Amino acid sequence: MEQNQTVTVLQAQEYHAAPLVCHVFVLVLCLSSAEDFDWTKNDHGSFYYGTFPAGFSWGAGSSAYQTEGAWDKDGKGLSIWDVFSHKKGKIQQNDTGDSSCEGYHKIKDDVGLMKELKLNHYRFSISWPRLIPTGIKSDHINEKGIQYYNELIDHLLENKITPIVTLYHWDLPQFLQERYGGWQNISMVNHFNEFANLCFERFGNRIKYWMTFNNPWSVAVEGYETGEHAPGLRLRGTGAYKAAHHIIKAHAKVWHTYDTQWRAKQKGLVGISLSGHWGEPVDISNQKDIEAAERYVQFYLGWFATPIFHGDYPQEKSYIKGTCDFLGVGHFTTRYITQKNHPSARSSSSYFTDRDLAELVDPRWPDPGSEWLYSVPWGFRRLLNFVKSQYGNPMIYVTENGVSEKIQCTELCDDWRIQYFKDYTNEMLKAIKDGVNVKGYTAWSLLDKFEWDEGYSERFGLYYVDFRNKNKPRYPKASVQFYKRIISSNGFPNQREVENWRRKAVETCSTSNQLLAADPLTSHMEMVTEIVVPTVCTLSILLSAVFLMFLLRRRN
Ligand code: NOJ
Q1: Is the CB of 330 under 6 A from ligand 1?
Q2: Which is nearest to 270 in space by CA: 319, 213, 187?
């Protein structure tokens, strides 16, 4: 059956032929500079049994706002996400990250989980307002925040887990948003550079992998264009482009700071983590569809990667070009893309109309969790090969890849996640065989956590977190057992063994499910010991005192 007969329309985008902002011009320029990526060759192939290169790094990830909690503890300043999530109606169920997984108080427990998985690395982010409450370094540095990250880093290293640190995973200090308009303002470049410099100074003796930004696409588009994310601004047609422009400059500045002031001593690497869906042409024999699919990918990745790798950017070409020691790639899903063929209003420009295309999905693609997340493993291999051909085969760390579930009831037997990890890591292995320089893989995420505007309704974790219980206990899902096997075998030995892993993983999860089912009872017991017992004791003491006084009076 033809591909275009099997797809359904997911989202229709408006037609707009005259983008206003210079970035789009840049994107158009880079379309013509595409090298040898072959859009017409999509070989899905069968499952590949084999191993990853020796030294391949396996990890899991998290981010500060999504897991730490302790939003107002120990001198931390407010971030835009603290403020945004406290506004009614912004987040599913009005959830907030106030306490989230209580990761701030659970360093040892969580490193224990990483050890259980035998991870080689852990990717986390540093909360800017936890270190610098207003965001402006000369105002005040919060030593307690420094201490927290010191403990985390030291504990990871003691356990032979390499920390990979993101400097900005979306939690801008609120003060900078209020005073300057956040990423709409060029002054963020210097403030961010000062924050980064502080991190290099305090933690750089132990950190070898830094990432400036996580998924700047989302910061720009969802923060300043659609307003679904903090700071919730809807500056259609300009907001995303301006934010991205300042982010690219800030990234380059931080890279230069490291390069000139710290690299010789600390010998680390500075990269950026970019995220993008893969876009596959609906009809690979139609040039218009190929161009539309390429636009789709360029509007995700190329927007940031082209200036950083090729310097094809106005004014600051040489300053920005080459400011990436490695590329972080976050990837979850794929779309079919076709040329938009019904022109509509030209009046309202936006990032989405500028792309000038339509997205489609195949109804047969599994979609166990988030509405946008269809499991399409072959798209991952295509994306990795695209990065290789477009940006000169850079060193890649996969910084995010994973799948969520929506199921509200407690469910630890996540067979669909096992399938997702198995197939996506296998496509990554094929990409490595194709010659893509992937050095590490980060499963997203270690724990269930605050999923931005979706609150706690979407669970990405390898470990289930019981958010009803104030201690936020963690329980392994079946995928923990499976991922652990991939890590210990550094790949997929043979069909029989891999099927065995899966069977065993699903067997053990039912035991964990029983533990979790007993959790309301445990919480009840905790309430008894924490509230009822002290209250009864106090009352008994009071009553005895009254009774004693009564006896004494009677005697007198
Ligand atoms: C990308 C974001 O960086 C991450 O924070 C989020 O949890 C995942 N997407 C899943 O939506």
Answers
A1: yes
A2: 213
Helical spans, DSSP H, in 259-347: 263-266, 287-297, 303-310, 317-320
Question: How many whole angstroms from 461 Cα to the centroid of ligand 1?
Answer: 11
Q: Choose the residue to mutate in 272, 373, 374, 451 for probing ligand 1, maximizing ligand atoms within 8 Å of C-beta.
A: 451
Three-class secondary structure of residue 372 per DSSP: coil
Residue 72 buriedness (CB in 10 A; 0-12 / 13-18 / 19+): exposed
- For the CA of 449, the closest atom of ligand 1 is 7
Catalytic residues: 400
Q: What is the 3-state secondary structure (H, E, C) of 153-182?
A: HHHHHHCCCEEEEEEECCCCEHHHHHHHCH
- In a domain, residue 36? The reply is no
249: closest CA among 179, 319, 324, 171?
319
Question: Is 442 touching ligand 1 by the criterion CB < 6 Å?
Answer: no
Atom of ligand 1 nearest to the CA of 275: 1
Which H or E element spans position 11? Answer: strand 8-11
- 255: in domain: yes
pTM for the full predicted model: 0.89
CATH code of residue 279: 3.20.20.80
451 lines ligand 1 (CB under 6 A): yes
**pLDDT higher than 70, residue 27:** no
Tally the C-alpha atoms within 13 A of residue 15's C-alpha that lie toward its C-beta: 9
Any ligand 1 atom below 6 A from CB of 402: no
Note the pLDDT tens digit of each residue in 168-189.
999 999 999 999 999 999 999 9
pLDDT tens digits along 266-311:
999 999 999 999 999 999 999 999 999 999 999 999 999 999 999 8
- What is the domain extent for residue 200? 50-493
Nearest CA to ligand 1 atom 11: 451
How far are the Cα atoms of 118, 120, 140, 169, 203 from residue 114, in angstroms, in the given order? 6, 9, 33, 21, 21
In a domain? residue 522: no
Q: Is 63 in the pocket of ligand 1 (CB under 6 A)?
A: yes
- Residue owning the nearest CA to atom 10 of ligand 1: 451
Residue 256 lies in a domain: yes
The domain tally of the chain equals: 1
**448-476 per-position pLDDT tens digit:** 999 999 999 999 999 999 999 999 999 99
